[in-house]
Structure formats: structure tokens, C-alpha cells
Amino acid sequence: MRDARPSRRVVTRGHVVRGACRFFLRHGTVDMDALAQDLAISRATLYRVVGSRDALLADVLWELADHLLERARLRRTRAGVDGVLEITRYFVGALRGSAPFEDFLRTEPETARRLLTGGRVHRRAVLAQRSILLEAGERDRLWSRSGIDDLAYLYVRVVESTLYAELLSSRRPDLALAERTARAVLQQTCGTSPRAG
Fold it and tell me: Is residue 80 part of a domain?
């Protein structure tokens, strides 16, 4: 005889993050009550799976940023310093051109500052930039692996100063200044490792 008990639906973090990304793209925020309704789960289940709204928002922001970074990497046509800057230029332009992202920065500046310039989003951005630097400089060994972590961290901070200028200093983003600074940082650190013979 078959068991008549209803099967219990398993709700994974990945399922919730994907749903939250769709919600964010529609609304420029994540409302936990509305998201739970969208996903047809209880609010208690939602919090059990993700822990907190901040943790979920951090995952959403990184998921969307990572998607844009991947597109930027695929569009890269140059190597070395110019290739790195090309990726950054596309990424910054796409992110700043995103209406949901701009809405989030405008309506939740404190949350945005907390999540975007520290914690998991920042750490993931540094790791992604490390990978971009290694990939772009691979042929000519432009950057030493021993200093790549510090370089990735510094580069991300330069980019953040433009992306989140309004949050950090109430200034308008100066993309040209940021690119000049980023180029100087990359060029200053080029050639710190031995060239392949």
C-alpha cells in the first residue's frame, strides 16, 4: 500500500537565491515576505534556508555581479593591462546602467554600503579579480603570483571607489579618473615577476 503522506518539498539555498535574483531585478530590492510568497514557502522556511536578509542580499548582489563579470570576460579582446581594463569598463558600465541596482543604491544606501564594500561581496570580488589578473597576464607573466592577492584587493578598491562613489563620499562617479588610477596601479606592478625565457 502506498504511503498517503504528502511529500515534503526540499527548498535549497540555490533555489531561493535564484528566486531572489529574479525578485531583485523586478523590484531593486528583496522583500522577505513577498519573496516567501513568490516562492510558495513560509517566511520561517525562507529564514531557515538563508539565515538573514543581509546574507541573502549579499548572495543576490554577487550572483548578478558575477554574471556581468562573466559576460565582460567573454567580450574581452585584448591581453594584459588593456584586457583587464576592458573587462572593468564593460562591468562598471553594465552595473551602473542597471535600473534595479541604481534603485537599490538610492533607496537602501546603508545596506548597500555595508554589503558591497565589505564582507562576502567584497571578498568574492577580490577573488574574481585575482583570476582576471592571472588570466590577462598569463602569456607574459605580468604579475607575480606572490603579490597578486594584494594587487587584486587594491584594484577592487579603486573600482569600488567609482561604482559606489555616492555611498562612500557623496561624490559623483568619475569613470575616467578611476580608469587612469586603475591603469597606473596595474602598470606600476607589471614586470615584478621573472619573464619566461
Answer: yes
Residue 158 grid cell: 579603486
DSSP summary character for residue 147: G
Residue 69 in contact with residue 87, Cβ under 8 Å? yes
DSSP label at residue 28: S
User: Is 142 contained in some domain?
Assistant: yes
What is the reported pTM? 0.86
Note the pLDDT tens digit of each residue in 57-89.
Answer: 999 999 999 999 999 999 999 889 999 999 999
The number of distinct structural domains making up the chain is 1
Domain enclosing residue 181, as ranges: 53-189
Report the CATH number at residue 184. 1.10.357
- pLDDT tens for residues 90-142? 999 999 899 999 999 999 999 999 999 888 899 999 999 999 998 887 766 78
